[in-house]
Amino acid sequence: MAAPQMLLVALASFAVGSSAAKVHSTRGALSMSFDDFVALHARSYSKGSQEYHERAALFEARRTAALVQNNRSDAKWSAAINKFSDRKEEELKLMHGYKPAQVRQSSGLSFAAEEEDHSRLKAALPDKVDWRHLSDAHVIVEQGGCGSCWAISATTVLNAHSEIHRGRARRFSSQELVNCVPNPQECGGQGGCSGATVELGIGWAVQHGLSLETTVPYLAQDDSCSNSFLQVQGLRGSTAGGAAFGLTGFRVLPSNKEEPLARALVELGPVAISVAASNWFSYDGGVFDECDNIVNHAVALYGYGRDSSHRWWLVKNSWGSDWGELGYIRVLRREHEDQHCGIDNEPDKGIACKGGPKEVTVCGTCGILYDSVVPQFDESKEA
User: Fold this and answer.
1) What family does this chain come from, according to its entry (predicted)?
2) Residues 6+ apart with CB under 8 A from 314
3) Within 10 A of 356 (CB to CB), how many other CB atoms are there?
4) Which one of the listed residues 159, 256, 296, 317 is annotated catalytic?
5) All domains of the chain, ordered by start, with CATH?
6) Apex CA 150: angle with CA 146 and CA 152, to 5°?
7) Is 165 a catalytic residue?
8) How far apart are CA 376 and CA 10, in angstroms?
């Protein structure tokens, strides 16, 4: 089977001035027959087979759920029939893959964790911030059936911070992280498409450097760790690692705290975050507010804002530009987000390492405050 390709999309500016669900945009898709859906998405189900009937049942159940959501008088977001509508639960789980470590260690890196700066008077935060003017904002990745969201989230924030702090737009290789980053504590998986952490991904880049996407393109599958930045630099007699392009370390923000996350987003740039995304698949637009507490997916926080009715977080996902609002989702930002908490009692399904706790507290809508990582670049502008 041909390897899925990374989607490069020039994002058009889209208005988000109204929080009303855009029900009108999905009516056509919701009236689609299953046979039309099969043709549209090039499915190979044999009509009348057991698989055909199983997939059709999933499609009809999700169409019904979408209609119910879109007909709610209090709906903040709209649902759609899309490429996920006939997928089994085990297939949808492959679209996650984030396994944040329970014990955060520096491993000799320039690393700061769980610390807040009380040494200076902090400036008031603005009502909105939006980093979609950056070059990488216009690139939406289709992660495919690989639990590589941790790697894509890591490279998304590395791309952004390279442009912000070094003045150099780069697109780092998510595939190299999938290929090369070990996961020795088996944090919910064995690494690669079986899942790992943003911390491990950025830590690898700090120590070993990271190739560009053009050198090691995304394949949406596990592959050998070859032609890596480390190997190329070694052949040149260099051992600079991430310092070769200004990456010096990373910072893990205080867990379940809203202000440090918002401040890092405003003052530093996009932040890699973890979320409970099991209910995101049918999202089509609007302000999403229906999550469980099972944190299982890594994404990039790209901004926040508000309209006449709601505050929201702006999140860049890795499910292609044909999902959500051109690849983005707006997630409800409640007043006092760090007081909106729940218990993730299934960390073994997404966030547990060997010997980790049986349950963890996650705060913010969709657990958005639980685990947040910011890369650190030196501020020397490149020519």
Assistant:
1) Belongs to the peptidase C1 family.
2) 130, 132, 301, 302, 303, 304, 305, 328, 330
3) 19
4) 317
5) 23-87 (1.10.287), 91-377 (3.90.70.10)
6) 80
7) no
8) 27
Closest CA to 292 of 343, 329, 331, 217: 343
Q: What's the rounded Cα separation, in Å, for the pair 1 and 165? A: 40
Catalytic member of 149, 193, 363, 366: 149
Compare 185 and 298 and report the one with higher pLDDT.
Answer: 298
Residue 183 annotated in active site: no
Which DSSP state fits 23? G
User: Per the residue annotation, which of 297, 340, 363, 366 is the catalytic one?
Assistant: 297
Q: How far apart are CA 276 and CA 240, in angstroms?
A: 36
Cα separation of 41 and 294, whole Å? 29
Judge whether 297 counts as a catalytic residue.
Answer: yes
CA-to-CA dists, residue 8 to 11, 171, 233, 322, angstroms = 9, 12, 28, 12
pLDDT tens-digit profile of 320-364? Answer: 999 999 999 999 999 999 999 999 887 655 555 666 777 889 999
Nearest Cα to 165, choosing from 372, 378, 374? 378
Q: Nearest to residue 79, comparing CAs of 140, 24, 144? A: 24
Q: How far apart are CA 238 and CA 232, in angstroms?
A: 9
Q: pLDDT tens for residues 37-46? A: 999 999 999 9
